[in-house]
Amino acid sequence: MQFTRRRLAAISAALLGLLALPALAQDSYPQRPVKLIVPFAPGGSTDIVARLVADRMQATLGQPVVVDNRTGGGMIGSEAVARAEADGYTVGIGTASTLTVNPILLKANRVDPLKDLAPITMLATVPTVFMVHPSFTGRSFEQVVAEVRAKPDFYNIGSAGTGSISHLLIEAMNTDLRFKLRHVPYRGMGPALTAALSGETEVSIDQYPSSAAHIKSGKLLPFAVGAPKRLEALPSVPTLKELGQPDLNELSMTWFGLVAPAKTPPAIQKKLHDAAVAALRDPALAARLKELGADAAAGSAEAFRAKIESGLARNRRIVQAAGINPE
Fold first, then answer.
1. What is the mean pLDDT of residues 212-241?
2. Mean pLDDT computed over every residue of the chain
3. Do 271 and 308 lie in a common domain?
4. Which of 114, 182, 207, 323 is the most buried (most CB within 10 A)?
């Protein structure tokens, strides 16, 4: 079969057109709604932040960003993102627990956050508040530390369960502050907060948004916060960094970020990054985050990856020092 010059030219043009299709698809992205997987149930702080950001990303992307909640301890949602087609139409929320705790403590975890996911940008940080029940003797950080040191393994503190990030935080407190609080695992932070309010646990930790009302009413008394700076709502309560505990301060700050399947094209990753950063710069969104006790934390993908890497390394050290076995 002989090919004429015209036929050869036509075939060459067709092949070049096929090769150009992926680039054209990236240039025109997105052409349909983007799914944002939140690896927790609706209503929690992760879900609230995700919905706020998703609503405003639409303005830049020109397409809706639709939140899809996947329950299951963070693992199911994270795996759904990691195994999704890497075309930019499925992205997810990664958290301190799903990206730096689950890979270490949960045997069932099948996602390597550094290999299976592409970090796009940090979104927000949420402070943690350290509190005591009114029946507890001490009020200040120094008084609490002195009292617990004087009575090792006497006072109780609750977590969301064995292997949770709150469990890691308790173990780190015991190590860094050189005392011994008795760890009581509950089935989630809701029951742990109930125990704190009743005095069943004398010392407690929680994200500030969910404890704010109880602090305001005097049912729980804060003695420190894990945050970049003092909270406007609690100006007299020092950060752990101020108190000489920078590592504990860093560990106690909950954070959320935007992630995508690892092989998502760089051009699409950049569009997602730019849309998320633009959303976080919206004054109304920043104000709403402030109301929730959170802070916008947009940054580069490289900085987000570095945060994940440092978090994994730190948490492995804590787990090893505490002798915690993966479950």
1. 95
2. 90
3. yes
4. 207
What is the C-alpha R_g of the chain? 23
Sheet holding 128-132, edge to edge: 182-185, 156-159, 203-207, 128-132, 221-226
Structural domain boundaries, residue 137: 128-252
My answer on whether 57 and 140 are in the same domain is: no
Identify whether 112 is part of a domain: yes
pLDDT digits (tens, 9 = 90+) for 6-27: 666 556 555 555 554 455 455 7
- Residues 38-79: tens digit of each pLDDT: 988 787 778 888 999 999 999 999 999 999 999 877 888 999
pLDDT given at position 6: 65
The label of the residue with tokens 């963070």 reads 74
Domain boundary among 252, 279, 313: 252
Domain count, the chain: 2
SS3 of 78-124: the string is HHHHHCCCCCCCEEEEEEHHHHHCHHHHCCCCCCCCCCCEEEEEEEE
